[in-house]
From TrEMBL:
This is Phosphonate transport system substrate-binding protein. Belongs to the phosphate/phosphite/phosphonate binding protein family. GO terms for biological process: organic phosphonate transport; transmembrane transport. Residues 28-257 form the Solute-binding protein family 3/N-terminal domain. It comes from Pseudomonas segetis.
Amino acid sequence: MTTFRKLFCACSVLLPLLASPHALAEPALRIGLIPSEDSQSMVESSQQVLDQLEAGLGMPVKPFVATDYNGVIEALRSKKLDVAYLGPFSYVLANKMADSEAFAVAVTKKTGTSAYHSLIITRRDSGIKTLADLKDHTFAFVDPSSTSGHLFPKAGIERAGYQPEELFSRVMFSGSHDASILAVVNRKVDAAAVADRILASAISQGQIKQDDIQIVWSSPDIPESPMVWRKDLDPALKQKLVKALAQVKDVPWGDQGVLNGFQPTTDAAYDVVRDTAKVLDLELSKMK
């Protein structure tokens, strides 16, 4: 009888847990961040934003940084993430492959705008001043799914009448904008494509000297990197997210500077990105 009672007591404790495996799990918002910097730096530079978002939502916010852009897209697709901060092109891919939707963009106090630019940079002492001068030099893109680190500069090169595989002696993907900037400065490559704001951040932080860098090419306006959510996210949570992000102010947001909130955006704002993909004959439905 004693043994029976022990078993009964043990089962009475375990059964509720087995019946509800998430009973003890605290609800949390899972947010993905694109790896424009190394993972630790990306989380650290976003921490104040995440803290304010957590306070506004009244629930924990757990960040996730993948090793590459597609890792964040895949995490959205498999519903391991609820929202993500993506580059414009990685968003277009996520919209197609992970049923995700752009809903907000950051507005900074410095610019008050929601656009940025891609740059092709080299060292000032390289003698490279035009796209034509890049002939037979080494080059770094960031990631195949990077907007300012691949899509727009590659399209710009082709619009100028060149093919990257013929123009450069060697092409590599660095994995992040910071890595591309350092690859140029440290003479690992002769030139690279990077986002203007990340270059400006590296200069302001003293990581590189402005006088050491030559800008060879600049893109037209690129719509700002959006905050996106899975379309099947709970509608009530979506409303809370929009309100909470609008109230995130006076804190630094990675390379973008001090935030003045997030403003609404729509999927249509990224049609210019889709049009640029067409210049490169990219079929979004076939990309993985």
